[in-house]
Amino acid sequence: MSATVVHKFLTFVGFTSILHAAYSAAQHRSYLRITEQEFTTLPIDILIQGIASLFVVMYGVMYIAGDFKEIRAVVDLENKSWETLRNLPSFQVFNHRGRSLSPEYITE
Predict the structure, then answer these.
(1) Which long-range contacts (CB under 8 A, 24 or more apart) does 14-21 make?
(2) Which of 53, 60, 81, 92 could covalently link to 11 via disulfide, CB atoms 3.0 to 4.6 Å apart?
(3) What is the pTM of this model?
(4) 3-class SS of residue 67
(5) pLDDT digits (tens, 9 = 90+) for 45-90
């Protein structure tokens, strides 16, 4: 799954449509306050626009996000050997300032 310009455009249009539906809902509520009517539910066109744009955004984001990984960690760990599991390269720091603070440190 590669993100194309079409998927990015669909996501942008979906977000814009969601914002428009939210603005329309706020306008509808303010109209009801001005006319002193009771709020029961949103008009069906605003509901349909909000739900449809939500699905468009979900479709676009699925293609932009890339490939999904397996939820189970066992799938990734099955391909690694025991030596690779014990290797923690993020903790292997060789050049740090602690060495220069040591009394045995000799500058080169």
Answers:
(1) 14/53, 14/54, 14/56, 14/57, 14/59, 14/60, 15/53, 15/57, 17/49, 17/52, 17/53, 17/56, 18/50, 18/53, 18/54, 18/57, 20/49, 21/46, 21/49, 21/50, 21/53
(2) 60
(3) 0.61
(4) coil
(5) 999 999 999 999 999 998 888 777 777 767 766 777 666 666 666 6
Residues in the chain: 108
Burial class of residue 60 in the structure, from the number of CB atoms within 10 Å of its CB (0-12 exposed, 13-18 middle, 19+ buried): buried
36: left (phi over 0), alpha (psi -120 to 50) or beta: left
Q: pLDDT (tens digit, 9 = 90+) per residue, 7-58?
A: 999 999 999 999 999 999 999 999 999 999 998 999 999 999 999 999 999 9
Q: Which residue has the tokens 């040591």?
A: 102
Inter-CA distances, 20 with 2, 26, 84, Å: 28, 10, 51
Instruction: Please say whether the beta carbons of 53 and 21 come within 8 A.
Output: yes
